[in-house]
Automatic annotation (TrEMBL), chain A:
Membrane topology: Multi-pass membrane protein
Annotated organism of origin: Kocuria turfanensis
Name of the protein described by the UniProt record: ABC transporter permease
Main location: membrane
InterPro entries hit by this protein: MetI-like (IPR000515), MetI-like_sf (IPR035906)
Gene Ontology biological process: transmembrane transport
Locations listed in the record: Cell membrane
From TrEMBL, chain B:
GO cellular component: periplasmic space
Taxonomic source organism: Kocuria turfanensis
Keywords in alphabetical order: Periplasm, Signal, Transport
TM segment ranges: none
Record-linked InterPro entries: SBP, Sperm_putr-bd
Protein name: Spermidine/putrescine ABC transporter substrate-binding protein
PANTHER family registered for this protein in UniProt: BIFUNCTIONAL POLYHYDROXYBUTYRATE SYNTHASE _ ABC TRANSPORTER PERIPLASMIC BINDING PROTEIN-RELATED (PTHR30222:SF18), SPERMIDINE/PUTRESCINE-BINDING PERIPLASMIC PROTEIN (PTHR30222)
GO MF annotation, one: polyamine binding
Signal sequence residues: 1-18
Transport among keywords: yes
PROSITE patterns (alphabetical): PROKAR_LIPOPROTEIN
Pfam family, one: SBP_bac_8
Gene Ontology biological process terms from the UniProt entry: polyamine transport
Coiled-coil regions listed in the entry: none
Length: 261, 400
């Protein structure tokens, strides 16, 4: 346990210490010392602020999209589908987890390609695919992290007794009203638990952005491009997602969702 | 007009003046003390018994043992002949290569000009005793003693080859062969949203190069020597370009898929990307536009902490031999450094013809990647130029 603490917290502390160092402008070698220059840089230069805000926005959009898709799927799997269909869907959801990350990202890259599968589907409708950019990035990330949202939501749906739905129907509620007033309050912890995954994983991703993001710059890509040239600046910028995720976890804890994990 | 011969000399003089570190005794030298100090490291004196292995950081396609492509194999014979097992690590970018060399785990690197100065000044690579590399003598004229691998009269690199960052275009999307970089920079480009740009701070030099041709009043004479104002102008142009760029690439294979599929219709690239795309049946061509281009010249450099110097020297000489140098150059799609690699077969002659290997006129229009430093390497002494760190920060701003 102590070792775990040292490994986890220790590396974060080291990262944080590095953020106060500087680099030799010519050889780009790291010079230990103490300077607030890196933090001043990321807090005052608009490019860093825009990148941070954009990344948080993308992470929230991914989380919302995953939640929207997980709700009907969880409902169907837990309450409507036959046991056999349920097994098929459960395998279907978790199957992408077995595929390599790069394979998945690259297949989305091909999907969004000009004249690729998506364009081919949309052309008869007189539409064009969005091409590489923020929209493609949100879709790709949602696909990557969807299982982390779908599984807890489905599990929570299974735990809701059927007679609650019957009671709700007896009292005259239509299907959607039942979901809204009975199921959603009971599912809230599961959604929050899933959102911790989708949100923090999206916040830290940089490879998907390079493959399908087009010109989109996110926190991860800025860190990746600075890690070789200016490690202290990369470290300073890496504290941004750490702070955001800690704040997110704090809010989640207050809602009591973490007991579900 | 570029002073190919004069420039390195001028730059060397400026650098060496700065390196002496005594500003008061050097007349009219730049007042900016950059703190560049080149560690005085010894070069090897002899090549002894091989250590049994050599660890190399290289660009994809430089160190091939037949596993990627059965036709590309010049490692197996080397291993058999010398008993040195070759362990290759592919570096994706110059910046990554610098970082990998700093770990001290590698003996050799195929460094481009934008990495070499950093490695030399950082004390990461040692000077090379060229007498121990017999094939060094046949290097083509334009690659001898370049500013990016020679300091204080010491050679730090054994040239491998050179190439230009050409303008690639998809012939299905681009009706007429372009002769200028303009469509990749101008706001009203016909290829808006489908332009491909290189994802690295060194790409700022491409903007500077275009400004040299289109805005002479800025006074840029070397795309790697930009003062604050000139850098700001280049950044301005890059931000404008950001609006028409569909994608920034830093991975050659990604670039191949974009330009072949027409997702990118034109943009900066390497000949090797064009070759790979054409091999896959992609309708891709390349040109060297009238404004000239940036380029790169790669050299083998040996780590100052090399644990296997004997095998490393054997590799450098092996890779510089006419046969192997020709293979590397033809596999990667660049001009070989060894002039004899252009002889001996029709294939070699044709390759050198298409890559202008011995055509110094052609390379007069190609500005080789050089690490930007505070001393202006165009010879100006009244201003301080921007260094690579400033370029890096500017690059983040460009992408916004």
């Amino acid at each position: 346990m102590a070792w775990l603490g040292v490994l986890y917290i220790g590396s974060l502390v080291l990262l944080f210490i590095t953020a106060f160092w500087s680099t030799d402008p010519f050889t780009s070698k790291v010079i230990p010392g103490f300077t607030l220059e890196n933090f001043r840089e990321i807090l005052t230069v608009p490019a860093y602020q825009q990148t941070a805000l954009r990344t948080v926005g993308i992470a929230l959009a991914v989380t919302a999209l995953c939640a929207l898709l997980a709700l009907p799927l969880g409902l169907y799997m837990a309450k409507i589908a036959s046991p056999r269909m349920r097994a098929v869907l459960a395998i279907g959801i978790t199957l992408p987890l077995w595929a390599g990350y790069l394979v998945k990202v690259f297949s989305w890259r091909i999907t969004f390609m000009t004249g690729g599968p998506l364009d081919w589907l949309l052309t008869p409708l007189g539409l064009n695919g969005p091409g590489y950019g923020t929209a493609a990035l949100v879709v790709t990330l949602s696909y990557l992290w969807f299982p982390y949202m779908a599984v807890p939501v489905y599990a929570a749906f299974r735990q809701i007794p059927d007679n609650l739905f019957d009671a709700s129907a007896d009292l005259g509620a239509k299907g959607w009203t039942t979901v809204r007033t009975v199921a959603l309050p009971l599912l809230k912890p599961a959604f929050i638990a899933g959102s911790i995954f989708t949100f923090s994983l999206s916040l830290g991703d940089y490879i998907a952005a390079q493959f399908v993001g087009g010109t989109t710059q996110v926190i991860g890509t800025v860190i990746a491009s600075n890690i070789n040239l200016n490690p202290p600046l990369a470290a300073a910028f890496a504290t941004v997602p750490v702070v955001v995720v800690v704040a997110y976890l704090f809010l989640a804890r207050k809602s009591g969702a973490l007991q579900q994990l | 007009m570029k002073f190919t011969k004069v420039l390195p000399l001028a730059a060397l003089t400026t650098l060496s003046l700065a390196l002496t570190g005594c500003g008061e005794s050097t007349p009219a030298s730049s007042s900016a003390s950059s703190g560049i100090q080149v560690p005085d490291l010894p070069a090897a004196t002899e090549v002894g018994e091989g250590e049994g292995q050599v660890n190399i950081v290289a660009w994809a396609g430089f160190v091939e043992d037949g596993s990627t492509n059965p036709d590309a194999d010049w490692v197996s014979a080397f291993e058999k002949e010398t008993g040195c097992q070759v362990n290759r690590k592919v570096g994706a970018t110059s910046d990554e290569m610098v970082q990998l060399m700093r770990t001290g785990e590698y003996d050799l690197v195929s460094a481009s000009g934008d990495a070499s100065l950093r490695l030399i000044a950082g004390g990461d690579v040692a000077p090379i005793n060229t007498e121990l590399v017999p094939n060094f003598g046949n290097v083509v004229e334009g690659l001898k003693g370049q500013v990016y691998d020679t300091l204080n009269g010491k050679s730090y690199g054994v040239p491998i080859g050179r190439g230009a960052n050409v303008l690639m275009y998809n012939t299905e999307e681009v009706a007429e062969a372009p002769d200028s970089w303009a469509p990749t920079w101008e706001e009203d480009s016909a290829y808006k949203g489908a332009v491909m740009a290189y994802d690295s701070p060194i790409y700022i030099a491409d903007a500077a190069l275009y400004l040299m041709a289109t805005q002479p009043e800025l006074g840029i004479t070397n795309p790697y020597a930009l003062d604050q104002e000139q850098l700001a102008a280049a950044v301005e142009l890059l931000k404008q370009q950001n609006g028409i760029v569909g994608e920034y690439w830093n991975d050659a294979l990604k670039a191949v898929s974009s330009i072949s599929s027409g997702t990118a219709q034109m943009g900066t690239g390497w000949q090797v990307i064009v070759n790979l795309a054409q091999a896959d049946g992609g309708k891709v061509e390349s040109v060297l536009p009238k404004e000239g281009a940036t380029g790169w010249s790669d050299t083998w450099m040996i780590s100052a902490k090399s644990k296997n110097p004997n095998c490393a020297y054997q590799w450098m000489d092996w890779a510089s031999s006419p046969e192997v140098n020709a293979k590397i150059a033809q596999n990667f799609g660049m001009a070989p450094a060894n002039s004899l690699a252009c002889e001996g077969s029709t294939k070699n002659e044709e390759h050198c013809e298409s890559f202008h290997a011995t055509d110094e006129e052609y390379y007069k229009n190609v500005w080789m990647w050089t690490t930007p430093v505070e001393q202006c390497i165009d010879g100006r002494t009244d201003v301080t130029c921007t260094n690579y760190q400033e370029w890096t920060k500017a690059w983040t701003e460009v992408k916004g």
